[in-house]
Amino acid sequence: MTDFQKEMIKKYGKDKICIDGTHGLNSYDFNLYSFLVVDEHKNGIPVAFCFSNRSTEEVFRIYFSAIKNAVGKIKTTTFMTDDAPAFYNAWSYVMGTVKNVLLCAWHVTRNWRQNLNKIKNPEKRKIVHKALKAVNDELCLKTFSNLMKQFIEDLLNDPDTSEFGKYFQQNYAQRPEKWAYCYRKGLGINTNMYLESLHKKIKYHYFDGKHTKRLDVAIDGLLKLVRDLIIQRLIKVTKKKISSDKLSKIVNSHRLSLEIQSNRIEKLSDIKWKIESNHSNYLICKKEEECHRLCNIKCTTCKICIHSYTCTCVDSLIRGNICKHIHKVAQMFLNDTRNEEIQENLNQNDILKETFDVLPYSSKSANNDGRESKNRKIESILALIDEHKCTPEEDNKIHRNLDSILNIFYNKKEHNNKRIKMMESSTTNIKKNMEKQLGYFSTRRKRFTASTLKNPTTEEVNNIKEGLLLNSQEITSINTDFDHIYYNQNK
């Protein structure tokens, strides 16, 4: 552990901590266990490493005791790991208990997908997968409890799904606080992708995708990683930059917010709004007038940061992003503020307008004069045509003059098009290599994998919840008759 890592764990270890291991780095069955915190830029920073050929609680006690001796006792709010109890058991023994102990959502979903093969009927397998997603994503604690109870009952009552029901009841039903969304609202972390990304970088960037035969070479690679992280952090802090991934999420949410209609927004108070969607309602609350943190995760267009608003949608509560609903409300708030500023300066603008209107006509813009003159003449011509009846000779003369006017613009447009084509042809690089022909690809029929299971749509989720809550066998009950009306409609 370097001095930089000690400083980072003292500063950010109070919020959330992630730990996981990876294998395949060397030829001696030594696994690398990385200890990671999340900084203000939502980037993962590894603060400690451990090489060991065992993954027992005793080994992790020694690991965490070494960290405690270096930086003192750490009291954190959130502790995330994979489904290995040895990590948290050792942590609680050395550092004490943690309020929020979470399992990585990606690991949980992967385990579910792998064990869904216990259900032999492919159609029921798809339905159970969608029901799992609906139950897992429920944000209301009371509703979640009712959904869980009915879901497990339906699984156990159906012979085709009873085996998976026993697996789910034994491994997950007794500890929903570790994986359900309703228990991780506002924590700002859902997966261990920080560590997955870190381990991928270590394997393929610093170890070149090869096994390291000597442990000192592996340690040298990790020290180089920490050195590069220091430089990257200095650049981000100095230039106030955020990662392209975070920026793309903000931009995408802002783009989606433009599609929300203003009439769907109801203002409940000065700091609270409600947005009505096709399938649900979301509550947006304004937290702070101005963020006093060193926060760089902002939307410059809406002039807000990640701490300005909260929303009851999954994107905000679970993933910790600036969701599209927050963007929409922030735009309305910003427009209201601008309208107030415009209203305050209205009298001054009127005076300026009146001053401009009384100026001599020759002192105004010549371009505006010519444009207005042409518009007045066109309006006069249209009025005279409607008012007077012309003879055939006069009609021919008018058409000839109008054609000559149109030819002026047609010739100008044709000239511009030729100019553009010449510019395009002149910028062609004759030394540029030809594009490569697309290669062949296999047309063999692929085997079934868990990835063929698709997540449910919003409508399907609502139907599943409704069926479970009402205990309606016509909609969601998993039985041998397979009378899933909602599934057939959305198939």
What do you see in this structure?
With 491 residues, the protein is α+β, with helices and mostly antiparallel strands. The chain has helices spanning 3-12, 57-71, 85-94, 105-115, 122-136, 141-157, 162-171, 193-206, 215-239, 244-257, 314-317, 324-344, 346-357, 366-387, 392-426, 458-470, 485-490, and strands at 16-22, 31-38, 44-52, 78-81, 100-103, 265-269, 272-276, 281-286, 298-299, 304-305, 309-311. The strands form 3 sheets. The chain has a 5-stranded mixed sheet, sandwiched between helices. A 4-stranded antiparallel sheet has the order 6-7-8-11. The longest helix has 35 residues, at 392-426. The chain is extended.
Q: Could you list some keywords that capture this structure?
A:
alpha+beta, 491 residues, extended, four-stranded antiparallel beta sheet, disordered C terminus, five-stranded mixed beta sheet
**What are the secondary-structure elements, in order, as H or E?**
HEEEHEHEHHHHHHHEEEEEEHHHHHHH
Mean pLDDT: 78
Rounded radius of gyration (Å): 32 Å
Range of strand content = 5-15%
Helix content: 40-55%
| Protein structure class | alpha+beta
The first-to-last residue Cα distance is: 54 Å
Sheet with the most strands: spatial strand order: 3-2-1-4-5
| Unreliable stretches covering 5 or more consecutive residues | 339-368, 472-491
Shape label: extended
